[in-house]
Amino acid sequence: MTTPRPATDLSADEARRIALRAQGFLGTPDRRAGVRGVLRHLGAVQLDTISVLARSHELIPYARLGSVGRRKVESAYWTASPAGASPARPHAFEYWSHAACILPIEEWPHFAFRRRAYRGRPHWNHQLPDGTYDQVIKQLRAEGPLTATELGGAKKTSEWWDWSGTKVAVERALMYGEVVCVERRGWKRVYDLAERAIPADLLHDELDDTECLRRLVRLAGQSLGVGTRGDIADYHRLKGEQVEAVIADSGLVPVTVEGWSKPAWADPAALETPPRGRHRTTLLSPFDSLIWERARTERIFGFTHRLEAYVPKPKRIHGYFAMPVLAGGRLVGRVDPAREGHTLVARQVTLDGPKAVPAVAQALVEAASWVDCTDVRVERVDAPDLREPLTRELANL
Predict the structure, then answer these.
(1) CA 35 to CA 45: how far, in whole Å?
(2) N or C: which end of the chain has fewer CB within 10 A?
């Protein structure tokens, strides 16, 4: 008896549920694997300087696992293991993927194509003083691992973009792969020589570009569950032609999705069983990989999402760091949060109708507890008639 092939014609609802499961929001999370399991499952966790409730790389595992301790999150990313091993083996490194991301250490070889591309760049935005690059490498070899400050200073002036020659050199070395960041200390990158920090079995750039791209396309497909070529390219910020060259040989399978105007590809494992299980109710970081790509978010959830932190305040619609609320596998609203002492302040709340009130209240209370707030205060609700039901629901939780 032959095993029936998984269906390759998906309804919009099936595609949505496949995407949720692939991103860790549908089904029972593997809490034993913890934060490191989330990182391996997603393949990339974006970093960003903005911290409202917490920094985005903390919010990502929280959204999937619940109230995992924030110190435990940092330790999971940056603490090498096993304890006492020599040399210690890191679990992750930081590099350019979708943006600046934490990546599983085992994926170091698969970014060789990008390191080679950076080495071949004809120009840079920052000038590199003569001799500075070699001096930085020499200092790291003698004294590392070091922050940019410990190397001699990150900036020439107080302007964030006005890098010192030392900072330019060490960041260029990071992009080339001669230097690596396998730890952040007080939000500062800690740099070390890749030859010292990366396990020997992963260090050498022996994979050609095609092998690297094939692996990253497959990983993107697994992390998305199902996506268009554009979705897959965006996950690790590949070029469309790079995806096109390898996708047929990536292990992903072509599918059609109801309502999607472009061809799609899926992880075959995601098609083997129907996505079932418990849905998470949570606030999402605007930098969460579930909603990275605006067109995909609109296509799957019918939800328009835009980070407004860099939009002038008078032009903001939903707030500085509006966090979408996920509940029942849908995006049912958004909250622009802030913290005042031990109070989580919902500066602005948008609700997708009265049915969203309990979920938004639950998400707010859970988030407040996670960041050690004992109270939640609502300042503004876009639909004024829902303010009183929301505050009542919060009081009952």
Answers:
(1) 11
(2) N
Over range 101-125, report the average pLDDT.
Answer: 91
Terminus-to-terminus CA distance in the chain, angstroms? Answer: 53
Q: What are 371's two structure tokens? A: 């960041």
DSSP SS3 for 350: strand
- Return the amino acid letter for 5: R
Structure tokens that stand for 272 in this block: 């083997």
Inter-residue contact 49 to 89 (CB < 8 Å): no
Percent with pLDDT over 70 in the chain: 94
Interval 271-294: pLDDT, tens: 999 999 999 999 999 999 999 999
Q: Would you say the C-alpha torsion 319, 324, 327, 332 has a positive or negative sign?
A: positive
- Mean residue pLDDT of the chain comes to 92
Give me the residue label for tokens 């098609």: 271
Grouping H, G, I as helix, E, B as strand and the rest as coil, residue 294 is helix
Asked if pLDDT for residue 348 goes beyond 70, the answer is yes
Q: How many Å apart are CA 8 and CA 139, to the nearest integer? A: 55
Q: Are strands 253-257 and 9-10 parallel, antiparallel or unpaired?
A: parallel
Average pLDDT over residues 362-386: 96
Q: Peptide bond before 90: cis, by omega within 30 degrees of 0?
A: no
Do residues 39 and 223 make contact, with C-beta atoms less than 8 angstroms apart? Answer: no
Query: What gap in Å lies between CA 219 and CA 42, rounded to an integer?
Result: 8
Tally of CB atoms within 10 A around 84: 6
Paired strand residues for 331: 326
Residue 107: pLDDT above 90?
yes
Query: Side chain identity at 195, as an amino acid letter?
Result: E
